[in-house]
Amino acid sequence: FQIDAITAYNTSSPFPHLLPPDHLICPLPSSQNPWSLPPLCPPPRQSSSSSSSSSSSLNDDEEDDEDEDPSPDCIFTSQQFRSSQGLSVITSPYLASVLLPALSDTSLPPSLPPSPGPSRVPWKIQPLPGRGMGLVATSKIQKHSRIMLGYPVLVVRLDFINGGRYSSKKKREMLDEAVDRLGGGVKKKILGLARSGQNKGDGVILDVLKTNGFGIEVGGEQHLGLFIEGSRVNHNCRPNAFWRYVPSAMAMEVVALRNIQPGEEVAHSYAPLGYTHEERKAVLRQWGFQCRCALCSAPPAERELADSRRERILEIHQLLSKASDIQSSRRIDQLVKEATTLIELEELHPQLVEYYVQFAKAYMMINDLKNGRHYIKKADEMWLFYGGEEHENVEGMNELWATLEEAEREAEDD
Ligand SMILES: C[S@@+](CC[C@H](N)C(=O)[O-])C[C@H]1O[C@@H](n2cnc3c(N)ncnc32)[C@H](O)[C@@H]1O
């Protein structure tokens, strides 16, 4: 199983052998050290190496790979993080340094308070048939409003988990230590996320991470973030919510895609939007469960209709990528309208971001710059909403604007 995805010194460490030689201690002057305990850096195995592309897992101790990363993964802990919620990180010293600006509570914008405060949340966590615990709305939730705000308790570099630089035993010890450093209350909450059947013993933290971790990027590298309440949001193939990550604050927001009525479950999609039933099944198998959302439990005819619409949406994407062959603005208008309607029928609204970009490119290919501008603007607005101001495609959008503006200048010159 391949999964995608920060702290003071504990003298009672159960792993004294993990204590690093001097040169492995993160070299921060103590006055600037944001971590409540000294980082703990067990040396990686001599002959093994890291590899995010490796197929190794915790059960595969003998993995070797060509790219060698000489830096160790260390355990960093801040017990003060977010009004003393606490945070442990397992990553390289360099990547941990990337997180430093996000650690302080005082630099957070007003929209991202360090703790939820006394305000009442519009949901509760309760058992749901066939889906374990889940989030259920207790009052009406407005479209596009924030449903939940959370900060991670654990962030673990994916390469640490999937790579072969540490033995399975060492990985488990480090994960246990990272959680122990957070104190009994947080540890209990983390263990409370374990699947029934998974006892609280060996390897349980890894299992909790695999089934609940959110993929987040730190310094361009994938990490898994564990958010206690966010972990309770189930999957739905027609989601009514999505999650948005704000890297500079390490904040996870769950946001409503549409109005949600009291009693409705709040769920987001763990699989890429637009996949067919079989494609979703394959992705969710990796998460270790069989989906029991309304669409997956619907009669075959309903699922087939959804599949055929999703296949057609993708087909239109491909047709539009060859818009220069079409050369008919009427035909492009038709395809744009058809894709928009199908995306709405399938309730895949976040997919519109990608499609608006495609519509813009198609119009630009046939020199319809007015429509090109219209859809770039719409895509930009949607990227901002779905991805936040720090969204991953800021550069892509800037390039698209630059291409359009150049084409507009050329058209004016002509
Ligand atoms: C991130 S957790 C969500 C919270 C979880 N239900 C709980 O009780 O803590 C993911 C797990 O929830 C269950 N789950 C989530 N969405 C589901 C769905 N649509 N159908 C069935 N099980 C689901 C699966 O067991 C999955 O491994």
UniProtKB/TrEMBL annotation:
Gene3D superfamilies: SET domain, Tetratricopeptide repeat domain. Residues 121-271 form the SET domain. The keyword Kinase does not apply. InterPro entries: SET_dom, SET_dom_sf, SET_domain_protein, TPR-like_helical_dom_sf. CDD domains: SET_SMYD. Residues 59-71 have a biased composition (Acidic residues). SMART domains: SET. Pfam families: SET. Residues 46-58 have a biased composition (Low complexity). Residues 37-75 are annotated as: Disordered. Keywords: Signal. This is SET domain-containing protein. It comes from Cladorrhinum samala.
